[in-house]
Amino acid sequence: MQKAVLTSLIAVGATIAVWAAPTPTILTIKETISDTAIVYPESFETDTRAMRENWYIRNYMALDAEVEDIVSDNTSDEVFIERLKSLPTEIEMVYNPIVRSYIEMYITRRRELVETMLGMSMYYMPIFEQALEKEGMPLELKYLPVIESALNPVAVSRAGATGLWQFMIGTAKGLGLEVNTLVDERRDPYRSSEMAARYLKELYGIYGDWSLAIAAYNCGPGNVNKALRRAGADSGDSGKKDYWEIYYYLPRETRGYVPAFIAANYVMTYFKCHNISPSLAKKPLITDTISIDRRVHFNQISAVLNMPVEEIRVLNPQYRKDIIPGNVRPYKLILPSQQVYSYIMSEDSILAYDNNRYALRTVVNPTNYDDNSGSYERKTVTKYHKVRRGESLSVIARKYGVTVSSIKRANGLRGDGIQRGQLLKITTKQRVRVKDAGGQVAEGSKAKSTKKQATRRHKVKSGETLSGIAMKYRGVTVADIRRANGIRGSKIRAGQTLLIPVK
């Protein structure tokens, strides 16, 4: 009997002690929560050296050399709290040991990554802000791509998420983004930002809480809903709807997503306070957009407009194979403003450039290579190219698949200077059908009936003129020499090789 009474007293005392203990509130959880198994986002593993080879970074950005690169990691909790509190944001920027661990990662071990992202942000942040503003979203969401992709438009995660906003292919197609072999709008800064803002708006409409919406953006609404159910079931409170209360019920890689987002807002704002060098603009990059309704390759644009292919790729990362399939439907092309007018004026030349290589074939008749009427062999053939406006030796060499040095050698050129209208001799290899045993040319390989004018070469000596050279060759006139070499006037130079028609 005494034993039973003692047991009852102990049970009552334990109940009173539990009732008297202070119940943790949302505020105390937010401020004190910790995690010994933090998983950092894949963006922290970004290869900074590779990013700094980006054409935009190399040509438009420079680090501020006046900032002394000294690592300072002794900032107090009070300073972090005050700075986060000073951010003009709608989304709650709380501070706790988990948030601090992400901030310290950025300001100590990943300083170069922050510097590179600051450079890329000068181009991408206005695009993000425009898309968020259109949907009425908080502008601080522009820092989500910092933790998603480290501002790399062609980033691909281990799970296959792609682009600045790291959309999975199913999510992207569900939002209306085009993804196929040639075009991936997940990599298009404008289209992906528009859809990301719209998707975040939908998620906020579901949860009414930005931290939960951001978590759902990372792991999907299904995982967040599961965490909410589990947290409510374990505590007996089905009304739990705070990120920090369900923190330990979320997937491990998602737990740190909101803390990383807070850290990204912090470091992209207070980088100078930690001696991280900001990026300075060498020159402004002003772009414009044109609609393309023909199939065109980046190499064709590059050759005719004399601009690097890397520049076109940086401005148009959505074209996976450097091909704009404008023959399917109109697509946009972004170029520096000064090049847009050049494209419009030169569009026919661009589409015609190396057309045999880049044109899309629709009907092809196969050739029978197995017949016994003859055989094929590679022979040296000579072609002639008339120099067009803006063409260089390297452009002409690429067109014919030869080297610049071979063109110089064939035409007696010492330097790289060529003139519009000049006729160049091009020596290359070509696969041709040879005669069969009976001496007949195989079908399909008959020689052209047009007979070419026979010529000989003359190397211009110092002091020679066209009339003087014409007199040296029987029956040849100045007009004949001009016609054979594509010369309009009478100007020639010493060392130049002229073609002389043989009468």
Short account of what is shown:
45% of the residues lie in helices and 12% in strands. The chain contains 22 helices and 10 strands. The radius of gyration is 35 Å and the shape is elongated.
What would you note in describing this structure?
- With 503 residues, the chain is an alpha+beta fold.
- It folds into four domains: 30-281, Orthogonal Bundle (Lysozyme); 287-358, no CATH class; 375-435, Roll (Membrane-bound Lytic Murein Transglycosylase D, Chain A); 453-503, LysM domain (Membrane-bound Lytic Murein Transglycosylase D, Chain A).
- It contains 22 helices and ten strands.
- The strands form five sheets. The chain has a two-stranded antiparallel sheet. Strands 3-6 form a two-stranded antiparallel ribbon.
Q: What keyword list fits this structure?
A:
single chain, 503 residues, alpha+beta, Lysozyme, Membrane-bound Lytic Murein Transglycosylase D, Chain A, 4 domains, two-stranded antiparallel sheet, 10 strands, 45% helix, 12% strand, elongated, disordered N terminus
Spell out the blueprint of helices and strands.
Layout: H1 2-20, H2 26-32, H3 48-52, H4 55-60, E1 61-63, H5 77-85, H6 97-109, H7 111-135, H8 144-149, H9 169-174, H10 189-207, H11 210-219, H12 221-235, H13 252-255, H14 257-270, E2 279-281, E3 287-292, E4 295-297, H15 298-305, H16 309-315, E5 323-325, E6 331-336, H17 337-352, H18 355-358, E7 375-386, H19 393-400, H20 404-411, E8 423-434, E9 455-459, H21 466-472, H22 478-485, E10 497-501
Antiparallel strand pairs: 1-2, 3-6, 4-5, 7-8, 9-10
Helix pairs in contact: 6-7, 6-14, 7-10, 10-11, 11-12, 15-17
